[in-house]
Amino acid sequence: MLRRRIYQRAVNAVLAVLVIALSAMPALAQCGCADAATCGGFSESDFVFTAKVSAIRYLDPVVIPGEPPLEPTEGVATLAVAEVFRGVVPPVVDVPMGGDCEVSFSVGELYLVYGASVTYGADGRVDQIFASGCSRTRRLSEAADDLAVIRALAGGKPDASLHGYISPYDVVSAIFDDAPVYDITLEGGGRRYQSQTKGGKYEFNFLNPGQYQLTITRGKDFEVRLSARLEPQACFDAGAIRMP
Asked: Which is it for the CA torsion 170, 172, 177, 182, positive or negative?
């Protein structure tokens, strides 16, 4: 009986950690989002721009007889557009927000927005731009890396990117401090780039076009090698690797 209680406590602890991790990434957890690389988020979006949220209009509260009204989280945010990197975006545009798989905004905050589709008003102008909760839309204060890559791409610089995903065999153990660390090395053009991860997305940006060798190791017992040629402004996907 004691052994069973100890085991149950251990299981509960793991589940608690997983719940915390998933709650920190609601869109990833609930909507089956892929963890897009920076270059991929830009190339796969029809509209990319910075903007300040000037107002939010929420839907009417949900009323259930005998219960307090449920304050809605869904609505429409009105954005004052600042800098446009992709697409034709009006100076002021509405973006639906707050659904399970839609972005959320706060009034007065600045954002980098990745939009995928639009609706048009009766005058033929863009009325709303839709930004998925799975997109890389984020507060501008958290988007310095995105902006650097985007400005290079939008400015026509030849810089290329390479990205991939490492999927640990044991996803639960990957969240703990003593989980195995994977070393990622990219060599080419006379330069060497290095990174480490316990699992998940990795990416290298601002690469000169040319031939590269990607090496992923875990200690001395595992090694994967991949050769790739990067063309100017390439967004090369090295794929997902399932690790033992």
From this structure: positive
145 and 227 share one domain: no
CATH of the domain at 60: 2.40.50.120
Neighbouring CB atoms inside 10 A of 192's CB total 10
Q: Provide the residue range defining the domain that includes 219.
A: 160-242
User: Is the pTM for the entire model greater than 0.90?
Assistant: no
Rounded-to-10 torsion of CA 60, 65, 70, 75? -20
User: What tens digit of pLDDT does each residue of 10-66 get?
Assistant: 334 433 333 333 333 444 545 767 778 999 999 999 999 999 999 999 876 655 676
CA distance 187 to 196: 15
CA nearest neighbour of 243 among 187, 185, 164: 164
Distances (CA, A) of 176 to 53, 173, 179: 38, 6, 6
